């Protein structure tokens, strides 16, 4: 499949963008300019090969690690018992119609985005993301002094994913999820420093039966270039209660409200209800 998406270049360019801004550098692949072959589409996936994320994982282990290695060119490159495979298996094993609760500092990994998009029509997917994480304190301070908002990496990458897979009706799949943005710039967070550099730094996936928690973030760099781990354990009722309390508190911060010029005009403000 020579014309398939070059995920290795996407992951590298996403990391470089995070650390140096929007401008492209020589030799970098712009995902907006890559045409995805139609034989990658199918069965509700933007890339059908992501259906194999649930393979090569032993859910009896309960502990899953990632190690630095070459960037993945395909989902099949992900090692057995990798954190992303364990998360995929957890979601796949959950009951249809149940609620999947996710908190992540960043959601920029195309594999992870496709995973959540795929299950959106069959589960209620609730995702809380950080509010525009800063690259470094000095850059954030300079932006704030100029009256500029920090870069919205998660929102930008989801938008890129939707455009990248526009022929797979990705914007329709986006309607089946709801993202809410943690209010990390709120005045109550400014007690520690003048710039309010608090973060929603939790990384957790909660199903009705199991929870994954650990250092693993839903980024291409976490998948391939970091030492990361998660533990998977039975879900406690208090975890669901705490998540839902925060979720309701963020009711006015749906992602397309916080970033109104980022997503297509036809994406509704609230989660699309499946008949």
Keyphrases for this structure?
single chain; alpha/beta; Endonuclease, Chain A; globular
Question: How are the elements arranged and paired?
Answer:
Layout: H1 7-20, E1 63-66, H2 83-93, E2 99-104, H3 110-119, E3 124-129, H4 137-145, H5 153-164, H6 170-174, E4 177-181, E5 204-206, E6 210-214, H7 220-224, E7 228-234, H8 237-249, H9 255-258
Parallel strand pairs: 2-3, 3-4
Antiparallel strand pairs: 1-7, 2-5, 5-6, 6-7
In short:
This protein has 275 residues and is an alpha/beta fold. Helix content is 30%, strand content 13%. Helix 3 links the parallel strand 2 (99-104) and strand 3 (124-129).
Could you characterize what this model shows?
With 275 residues, the chain is α/β, with parallel strands linked by helices. The protein has one domain: Endonuclease Chain A (Endonuclease, Chain A, 2-Layer Sandwich). The chain has 9 helices and 7 strands, in the order H-E-H-E-H-E-H-H-H-E-E-E-H-E-H-H. The protein has helices spanning 7-20, 83-93, 110-119, 137-145, 153-164, 170-174, 220-224, 237-249, 255-258, and strands at residues 63-66, 99-104, 124-129, 177-181, 204-206, 210-214, 228-234. The chain has a 7-stranded mixed beta sheet, with helices on both faces. It is globular, with a radius of gyration of 18 Å. The termini are far apart.
Helix content: 25-40%
Question: Rg to the nearest angstrom?
Answer: 18 Å
> Low-confidence spans: pLDDT under 50, at least 5 residues?
18-37, 134-138, 268-275
Number of domains: 1
Work out the number of β strands.
Answer: 7
- What is the number of helices? 9
Q: Provide mean pLDDT, rounded.
A: 80
The main pleated sheet reads as: 7 strands, mixed
Question: What proportion of the residues form beta strands (DSSP E)?
Answer: 5-15%
Tell me the strand order in the biggest sheet: 1-7-6-5-2-3-4
CATH class: Alpha Beta
Shape: globular
Structural category: alpha/beta
**Considering the protein shown, what is the CATH homologous superfamily?**
Endonuclease Chain A
Based on the coordinates given, report the CATH architecture.
Answer: 2-Layer Sandwich
